[in-house]
Design brief:
Structural class: alpha+beta
Largest sheet: 5 strands, antiparallel
Number of domains: 1
Number of strands: 5
Strand content: 15-25%
Strand order of the largest sheet: 1-2-3-4-5
Order of helices and strands: HEHHHHHEEEE
Distance between the termini: 83 Å
Shape: globular
């Protein structure tokens, strides 16, 4: 075998290896983009210590962080400050801004059912009382991971027709995913007892 044949064979092998890696990466991305994860909580966290005790508090996947965000929001009517502490933990290097705190008050005061509506079994007919243990499914779309270190994942409310987004950001130095923006709290169907048209 001449030197040129040898070099050609090496180049062909390298190209095949790179193509295989690219295909594997594309397959992993496609699987990730259309995937969902379901989380089960025997009880919802009442404060930061309880949240940190959950295995999902490792925050090593955006799905875990999104699920914990919804779980933390369920405590809003009982203890706003505890919710702020839990969300600050989930936000990582950035605390909630005053504008974000006001947004939560506007969306959740007197409407605590919104947060519970994302758990399995919660519907307008049963006033959004979820089944226990609490189960929540967090899903991705083909567009969820378009930008490096960013993700937009979705949770389905029992009172809405389409899934609602939660935006997350990865901190490369730790590999953890942190909450960036809560976008899932727009209005949903009223609980049956509050709906004048029910």
């Amino acid at each position: 075998m001449g030197i040129f044949d040898f070099l050609k064979k090496q180049a062909d092998t390298a190209l095949r290896q790179e193509a295989a890696k690219a295909l594997q990466g594309a397959a992993q991305s496609a699987a990730k983009a259309g995937s969902s994860e379901t989380f089960t909580f025997p009880a919802l966290p009442a404060d930061l210590a309880q949240l940190k005790a959950l295995p999902e508090a490792s925050l090593d996947s955006p799905y875990k962080t999104a699920a914990l965000t919804v779980a933390a929001l369920c405590r809003f009517e009982e203890d706003e400050d505890a919710v702020h502490e839990m969300l600050n933990f989930l936000k990582g290097p950035e605390d909630l801004s005053n504008m974000e705190k006001q947004f939560l008050r506007d969306r959740l005061r007197g409407q605590a059912y919104k947060s519970f509506s994302f758990f399995a079994g919660a519907t307008p007919e049963n006033s959004y009382v979820p089944a226990v243990p609490y189960r929540i499914t967090v899903s991705a779309t083909p567009y969820s991971f378009q930008d490096e270190n960013w993700a937009t994942l979705y949770v389905q409310s029992g009172g809405a027709d389409s899934p609602r987004p939660i935006k997350l950001r990865k901190k490369p130095s730790t590999g953890q995913w942190f909450l960036n923006e809560i976008q899932c709290l727009s209005d949903i169907r009223l609980p049956k007892e509050q709906d004048p048209w029910a």
